[in-house]
Amino acid sequence: MTVDFDDWQHRADAVWQDGTLDDDARIAAIDALAAELGNEHPVALFERAGARDSAGRELEAEPLYRAALAAGLDPVRRTRAVIQLASTIRNLGKVDESLAMLRDEYEATRGREMADEAAAFYALALTSSGDAVRAASVALTALAPHLNSYTRSVTGYAAELLAKSGE
Q: How far is CA 103 from the centre of its chain?
């Protein structure tokens, strides 16, 4: 059976947007959609991981995220999967691995789509690792281009935070 992927994605998005579904119903609906693509399809794996992650089932989500990444995702979904996996494993106490993944993603996405998202989660992981100064610098650097005024000043202060901390 050939699946119209645009239609499939529209239906998956509708599941995510349906506020009437509880966690178990959302997981069941995503799993049913994933089966249409094949349970080993990278996007199916990613969506199944996200449904479990959203339900607080991080231990179930982690291997699905890893399988989705190994199976190959388009660039935006790959970045989303890295962010979501890193956030999941941070919550599972694997802060160092999370931090390494997010640092790499932060560097890889700079100036590209998903850069701010990567920066936000990198800042969270830095905070979890006890590096609040670097976290503030990363967050301010990501925020600065969106300001109506003071972009240059905030960018400078973000760099200064690191310089004062010896980074």
A: 12
